[in-house]
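INTERNAL AUDIT FORM
Audit reference: QA-55
Scope: verify that the stored structure record matches its stored sequence.
Auditor: D.O.
Record contents follow.
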Amino acid sequence: MDDAKPLFIQLAEQIEGRILDGTYPEETQVPSTNEFAAFLRINPATAGKGLTRLVEAGVLYKRRGIGMFVARGAREGLLRARRETFRDQFIQPLIDEAARLGIDPAQLAGMVAEAASTTEEVR
């Protein structure tokens, strides 16, 4: 866990990550509030707050008396939201700085492609 973020947000992000990587496919049940609380050694109310956040976002839904399940379309919705966040937090500032430095879009694209190929070679 990361001290910089509230625990309930960290839990929600962990669940989102597991939905994105396929650990929790759509329409499958996720662990209960008490299971998350016990596993992560956090207060059940904190775990509940993280799950509620995902229910409110439409990522999870409740089946009364049964538990929480991953909603249909949750993965695509999460991918869309994360791509938008990525664009806003990383791409737009990159474009803005490139413009300040006189780097045109074609040059920037070439620089990104070059850096990506170097990164792929390291893997």
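Auditor finding: record pair retrieved intact. The longest strand covers residues 60-63.
Action required: none
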